[in-house]
């Protein structure tokens, strides 16, 4: 039983789940300065977001396998299919079950907290399903990066905020930008690494469309703008001065940028860049959350 759980956990790609945990938490914490923090509803909204992302990860693995985008050599999936830990059918059924669980939870939250949650949930669920699912297969058409920014930036941050306070805020929308950019950088790092294999599979990502050199520039831009946006929000009073602590993650960011800068066409040098970027996003987001909590004490 324990071994099976660990296999399914691996399929969910736990290293990436900060992509949903951080924005929902930021939105909820920001609402805390305007109303009483509703911890139970925070947990429910967090669980719904994590289930959505986990299901997308599983279904993406299945779709990439069936469409021959991922191979044993590419090393870009969780590996549970290629290592015969789960069959493709098991992974597909599991992904759909997790997605359905997240949708049910989203429906409950929308019933409790308002129609806006239903809209956000529906956009998130449909975008997640059609990320690589037929007939839209949005990632394969070069729409993966903007979709990830929208879902794991504004959508989840506003969702976490709205569940707490039942209104929307321009400040929360701005607050979603740095974390959304870093989350997009996770996917973009993955796409840069996989340019060769994705070309062989006949799909299009932004990295394939604009080329490797320009893709590297976009990665640098996503990382840099994350820090610039936080500094701007501190200046305009949207985030507290404590948020300057996010700068302690800058050496990690520069290390990732330099790794990409000195890499060649071989994807082996960038095998872990997506995971390293996920760590950066997690550390950055946690510090941003802590800085906000400090300002309310």
TrEMBL record:
The chain crosses the membrane at residues 12-32, 39-59, 114-131, 143-162, 168-189, 228-250. Its EC number is 2.5.1.74. It is found in: Cell membrane; Membrane. Pathway: Quinol/quinone metabolism; menaquinone biosynthesis; menaquinol from 1,4-dihydroxy-2-naphthoate: step 1/2. It catalyses: an all-trans-polyprenyl diphosphate + 1,4-dihydroxy-2-naphthoate + H(+) = a 2-demethylmenaquinol + CO2 + diphosphate. GO terms for molecular function: 1,4-dihydroxy-2-naphthoate polyprenyltransferase activity. Keywords: Cell membrane, Membrane, Menaquinone biosynthesis, Transferase, Transmembrane, Transmembrane helix. It is a multi-pass membrane protein. It holds the Pfam family UbiA. HAMAP family: MenA_1. Conversion of 1,4-dihydroxy-2-naphthoate (DHNA) to demethylmenaquinone (DMK). Belongs to the MenA family. Type 1 subfamily. This is 1,4-dihydroxy-2-naphthoate octaprenyltransferase. It comes from Clostridium algifaecis. The lineage of its organism: Bacteria, Bacillati, Bacillota, Clostridia, Eubacteriales.
């Amino acid at each position: 039983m324990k071994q099976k759980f660990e296999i399914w956990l691996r399929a969910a790609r736990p290293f990436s789940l900060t992509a949903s945990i951080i924005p929902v938490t930021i939105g909820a914490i920001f609402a805390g300065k305007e109303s009483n923090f509703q911890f139970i509803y925070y947990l429910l909204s967090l669980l719904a977001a994590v289930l959505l992302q986990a299901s997308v990860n599983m279904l993406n693995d299945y779709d990439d396998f069936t469409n021959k985008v991922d191979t044993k050599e590419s090393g870009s999936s969780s590996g549970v299919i290629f290592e015969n830990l789960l069959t493709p059918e098991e992974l597909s059924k599991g992904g759909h079950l997790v997605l359905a669980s997240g949708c049910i939870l989203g429906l409950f939250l929308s019933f409790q907290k308002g129609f806006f949650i239903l809209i956000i949930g529906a956009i998130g669920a449909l975008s997640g399903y059609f990320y690589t699912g037929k007939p839209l297969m949005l990632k394969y058409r070069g729409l993966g990066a903007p979709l990830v920014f929208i879902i794991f930036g504004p959508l989840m941050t506003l969702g976490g905020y709205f569940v707490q306070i039942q209104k929307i805020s321009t400040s929360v929308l701005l607050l979603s930008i740095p974390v959304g950019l870093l989350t997009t950088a996770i996917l973009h790092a993955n796409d840069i690494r996989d340019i060769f294999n994705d070309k062989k599979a006949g799909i299009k990502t932004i990295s394939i469309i604009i080329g490797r050199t320009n893709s590297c520039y976009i990665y640098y831009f996503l990382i840099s703008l994350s820090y610039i946006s936080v500094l701007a929000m501190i200046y305009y009073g949207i985030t507290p001065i404590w948020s300057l602590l996010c700068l302690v993650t800058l050496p990690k960011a520069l290390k990732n940028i330099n790794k990409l800068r000195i890499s060649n066409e071989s994807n082996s040098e960038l095998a872990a860049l997506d995971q390293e970027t996920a760590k950066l996003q997690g550390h950055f987001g946690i510090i941003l959350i802590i800085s906000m909590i400090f300002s309310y004490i």
